[in-house]
What does this fold into?
Amino acid sequence: MGGLSELGLVGLFLGSFLAATVVPFSSDFLIVGALLAGADPVGVFISATSGSFLGSVSTYWVGHIGKWSWIEKWFKVKPETLEKQQRKIEKWGPPIAVFAWLPFIGDVFSLALGFYKVNFWKVSFFTLIGKALRSGLWIFLYLQYGETFLNFIKNLRLF
It folds into this structure.
């Protein structure tokens, strides 16, 4: 995904979109990279948040078109298991979409919320909140702590 950084904020949007689907990578390094390259923090926030939000929405719709019979047949999941998962999703409801930003499991939340036909508009609202908080946090940490933050990340070996 290194070529995305050369596209500036458009690359950040595309990378954030892809990272919010089932493509296994994180857009966090793109956010920090855009800031390091001198991009406007507001533009970075809008690009990262909107790309990530739309990626999660597309994952929701992939789940929405899914059918129980497909899951049972292709993945050998028992109806009882699907019913148990549905009860959990119904218990937590749309607010669980706030956690769509979490690596790996966030995509599962988006997919499950779509699969179990949870209200799209409510899911979208909570997804947008979660995605905005994540983008905002990365930008805040970079702007507030600069080199100290970057050195901390390097020591964690996240990038």
The CA atoms of residues 53 and 128 lie 6 Å apart. The chain has seven helices and no strands. Residues 2-156 form one domain.
